[in-house]
Amino acid sequence: MNNTIEHIFFDLDHTLWDFDKNSSLAFEMLFDKFNITLEIEAFLEKYQPINMKYWKLYREEKINKEALRRSRLIEAFSFFNIKFSLDIIDSMSNDYITFLPLNNHLISGTEDLLEYLDPKYNLHIITNGFREVQHNKLSSSGIGHYFKTVTNSEDVGVKKPNPLIFEHAIKISGAKRSNSIMIGDNYEADILGAEASGLSAICFNYHKENLPTNSLQVSELNQIKRHL
């Protein structure tokens, strides 16, 4: 990595904020409230790939926020032959969003990495997550103070990998493409999106995918220090 980098843009979920662990805890609270007796592990095994599928459709502007939040629950419960009214699904969806930032486990190495980078670089967030949740996550997890700007797709009106969201983040941060780098877990949204916008990128391969060999990637956050 060249030594001209001054600005680092991070994704949040699955990159710094441990979405899977926090989501599991939110579902435990949800199941308790609605007296759902399914095993959490069995439910999450079905839910997680469904959630990723609907987030991809959401990024591609093929569904809206409401459809994402409803459909992922409806489809996951259907595997267990459980059907709820739309009113109950909406109540669950709202409660899940409320419960989600109440637990704020971070990906291993997050705080150490941010402590290492903070004196040397300007740190920023670019996220596709819901506006009402992401700021709570940053504040409640104790890492919000590291970031000089937070760019949210709902505020910009487009989602990663759309180049407009990267352009917006660059503009409000005062950065330049030539001195910026994006770090995220989603190869399509974070890495290809950043590279198409003229930014360098490092993929935190949280999902253990088979990525192109020419892609700069790490399997643990502390490995990022080797490149910055």
What does this molecule look like?
By secondary structure, the chain is an alpha/beta fold. Helix content is 46%, strand content 12%. The chain contains nine helices and six strands, in the order E-H-H-H-H-H-E-H-E-H-H-E-H-E-E. It has helices at residues 19-33, 40-59, 65-78, 86-99, 110-117, 131-140, 153-156, 163-173, 187-196; strands at residues 7-10, 122-127, 147-152, 180-184, 200-204, 217-218. Strands 3-2-1-4-5-6 form a six-stranded parallel beta sheet, with helices on both faces. Strand 4 (180-184), helix 9 (187-196) and strand 5 (200-204) form a beta-alpha-beta unit. Helix 2 (40-59) packs antiparallel against helix 3 (65-78) and helix 3 packs across helix 4. It is globular and about 55 Å long. The N and C termini lie close together (7 Å).
Can you summarize the main beta sheet? 6 strands, parallel
Helix % is: 40-55%
Q: Report the span from N to C terminus.
A: 7 Å
What shape does the CA trace take? Answer: globular
Summarize the structure.
By secondary structure, the chain is an alpha/beta fold.
Protein traits:
alpha/beta; 228 residues; globular; 6-stranded parallel sheet; single chain
Break the fold down into its secondary structure elements and pairings.
Elements: E1 7-10, H1 19-33, H2 40-59, H3 65-78, H4 86-99, H5 110-117, E2 122-127, H6 131-140, E3 147-152, H7 153-156, H8 163-173, E4 180-184, H9 187-196, E5 200-204, E6 217-218
Parallel strand pairs: 1-2, 1-4, 2-3, 4-5, 5-6
Helix pairs in contact: 1-2, 1-4, 2-3, 3-4
